[in-house]
Amino acid sequence: MLRKNINIPSAEVKMENLRKAMQLAGIQACIIPTTDPHIGEYTPDRWKTREWISGFTGSAGTVVITKDKAGLWTDSRYFLQVEEQLKGSGIDLFKTGLPETPAFSEWIASELSAGDCVGIEGEVFAASEAKSLIEFFSGKDLKVRTDFTPYDSLWENRPAIPANPAFVLPERFTGKSCREKIKEVLAEVNKNQADITVLAALDTIAWLFNIRGNDVEYNPVCLSYAVVSEKETVLFISPNKLTQEVAEHLQQQGVVIAGYEKITGYIQKIPAGTKVLIAPSKINYRLYSALSEKCVIKETTVHPADSLKSVKNETEIEGIRNAMRKDGVAMVKLLIDLEKAIENGETVTELDVEEKLQKYHSEQEFYFGESFHPIVGYGAHGAIVHYEATPESAATIQRDGILLIDAGAQYFDGTTDITRTISTGEVSETIKRDYTHVLKGHIQLASAVFPAGTVGMQLDVLARHALWKGGQNFLHGTGHGVGCFLNVHEGPQSIRMNHNPATLAPGMITSNEPGLYLAGEYGIRIENLLLTVKAKTTDFGDFYAFEILTLCPIDTRLIDCSLLSPEEIDWLNAYHQKVYDQLAPLLSQEEKEWLKKRTDL
Amino acid sequence: MLRKNINIPSAEVKMENLRKAMQLAGIQACIIPTTDPHIGEYTPDRWKTREWISGFTGSAGTVVITKDKAGLWTDSRYFLQVEEQLKGSGIDLFKTGLPETPAFSEWIASELSAGDCVGIEGEVFAASEAKSLIEFFSGKDLKVRTDFTPYDSLWENRPAIPANPAFVLPERFTGKSCREKIKEVLAEVNKNQADITVLAALDTIAWLFNIRGNDVEYNPVCLSYAVVSEKETVLFISPNKLTQEVAEHLQQQGVVIAGYEKITGYIQKIPAGTKVLIAPSKINYRLYSALSEKCVIKETTVHPADSLKSVKNETEIEGIRNAMRKDGVAMVKLLIDLEKAIENGETVTELDVEEKLQKYHSEQEFYFGESFHPIVGYGAHGAIVHYEATPESAATIQRDGILLIDAGAQYFDGTTDITRTISTGEVSETIKRDYTHVLKGHIQLASAVFPAGTVGMQLDVLARHALWKGGQNFLHGTGHGVGCFLNVHEGPQSIRMNHNPATLAPGMITSNEPGLYLAGEYGIRIENLLLTVKAKTTDFGDFYAFEILTLCPIDTRLIDCSLLSPEEIDWLNAYHQKVYDQLAPLLSQEEKEWLKKRTDL
Fold this sequence. Notes:
2 copies of one chain form a homodimer. By secondary structure, the first copy, chain A, is of the alpha+beta class. Helices cover 35% and strands 20% of the residues of chain A.
């Protein structure tokens, strides 16, 4: 059936209308970022303003529009895609990360004249970001208006705010009642010498209230804000999300319920002299500036609720161990199918692999959905770090080279995230060497023992040193925090080349995913999730180590054993023994035999 | 000969007089820190105010005096010593680093009442420190006076400002003229969008002007300030330091000379609107506050002159290589003497070792002095990280256990700093295991290869992981920068468990000194100096590595070879081969034979 022609305004028309609105408002430059009012990683359609104006669909980028120019700033991941998508839009591409590219703020300063005004929509900027822009522009004699929000009238058929029902995650999964969590958060707020705190991060709110939702792709959260104080804890959420179950649960836990849009008014009424704890990078500027100047604002880089969320309790840990077994079973079934299909000369594309894995995920108990868009990259596609196969791009797996699979699922009892790079046939010695160097890094980090107080940046080199010695590297982080039936990326901890003051505490789940990407050739990544555990206490204090949560064989056909130390071989054998012991009881005889073979070194 | 009895006022009398001065000035609490107007590591006697009032001679500590209480805050290195030295002083000890110990600022806030005033001598506080104190106290409704300087009248026979002559360090050692360095500093000042900069760090000034002096123990620097701007470069220095040679040199290099005390007046007259670059942690508060409010102050964490100083040029590197050979020869001679003496049952004390090493240092070409007070600790003394042997404490070396020697010298062509831990006879298997773990860390860090942009905190784990795996650790930094005939501790780079944003650049000299300290038993440390060098350039960018500068055998009698990997054994053999090749031509036949034996694994 033919699609009807819908009259979608062209980029030029949109831009013209926006410029008229700018002129009316006395604004000479307008900045449109990628974020939403909750400063999340995935933006609901409602707030894809940058995509609406530019046509660029990447997950990171900023558009700037002046009277006669327009630019889009994005990074190397999107250079190819964005050039295609910007064609005919009248928007110039600015490639961030290149030394010659000015920051968009610098560019604006160079385009505008003293006394001019920059317009932003404060609601979709983190308070920290908006504040630093305001400071920067004021140093350049430029004004900033943070209430420039013309999009509702300019954007025809703008998507509505998501209105999916929320649901309660029972204590058998959360291990702790909402009431207890509120008490803990409040204790931390008081420790920070504050009386009240405002939360806008959806995963933190979902964790705190033991509710989940369906408003954001891959993240089982629901749009809401929250305020916690000695006097009351208020959840700001639309009535259409409040099933009877959720309403009763919140009531039982002593939570006051208010409408989603009531948050601003509530904040404005916080009495003078109240000490308000906020994390400026986790709250939007509109909320931030709604606070009375007579309040005492206590700023924190890491909100204590995020730290509490990141340390999983025993119930959550048991849940994630169970989710990992399910995930391992799904991966084993996929890998067996894939091997067979390749052996039999069947046509298998990257999309087929995605679909099959999702099918095996969905057959597992408590399945809710995928935890992110899977990355399945064969050959050169594996070298594109954020590759997403499309019907047009999807490669057919051949009987040589390697295939990178990075995927995960949301189960009620845990969130998973695994990467395996597998041989699909003949591979060169160079690939084996590279794979083994990545594996060495993976093993070194997994084997780390470290004192209490250690931060991720201190351990990061363990995952990279085998690569660095050969003049290789990977330019993404080594590890991110993972939620419990929550966001697959969470803070506060990370393992990266950059400094992050959050320490690695027992109970945290963090990924271990070194890789190597040779553009046009292949990509390698090996990812397991790690649980920080207590290792020992000595005269030198407490020492921690990692328990490996992920259960799936690491492809031994790609290993050059001569490059591994005896300790590294021992590690691999011990890991594979654990994988076999944990998964075998859940597999058929045939699957067990395959697993036996793939876990033998 | 008997010493005459001099009538030194007791601590009580000094305190009483100080309290009178506080009362007159309307001050309820007075803070006396350890630093001097140049915020250096070693304080000239003139500014040892904290020692004068308290009797405590340690290198770190802060005294606080209120109307009826007095406290001294210092860390665990000094707990034993300070208790002895504070006896009868009326000053209470506050042990920093313990969870129950309040910060001195918190303590002051708890002792004083709203509206009270805290007095400090702005000249001996870093601007950053004073500013944060002022901010803290203002949040507690306390005033701060930064001009409380009663010590000239209270302190009988207060030592004068050091008045030793300066001297010129010729370009054959510095490799670059003063004029060129000024040009480079100015270019960096301009890059920081500033017109002028003020320098107070003595080593930076000595480096910039190619002069040296004798005003501070172990640091070959002379008291001075400097200002660099497009218009002129001014060195503020007392006439009594200006030999004709120095005056002519400065004139030739286009430097304006002014009196040491003229700096404040000069700064006050910097015209309104001038952009002034300063590093608030490297300039005292009095100078900082002398800047007109109409100047635009550009603050930087790391002053660009310090970064320039830290990157050694080819001439400096050749110099340090030469200094290292001399240092190696001195160490070899000492170690041979020591072995013989122990074998022959002679009595050798820790002080004898110090003296002998200093003698061998002093016999080398271009010797100027020691670069710090040597640490020679036998047995349990080795576990005291900052141990200094005294005639009372000096232990006699016995034919069992281990001896730690940490020493260095100042030569015109370089500054050295080495630590070796040697066997003096029988040692237990436990000592060998611990020594080997320290050595493994030393080797892992020395073998590092890392991309441009790496900071010390990223590499630090390499030096610690072998210890961490056994639940051990050392609580000092792994590496500090080292000057070129300048301070043995310099910035900006370091290798530590703490974050420091300074990257490790080619040409920097950094120590590699992991250790292990078991209180009451023994201490182990192995220290070499490392030069950062370019290793390779690949598609992933520039990679750096370390060239080992220090030349002295590592005691193989203490190694448990079964704990070393084949690569680690290769490293040790290659290092020893280099030590032998470099030192043998400078040694006698007998010394060569000893070195051959001690460099065989």
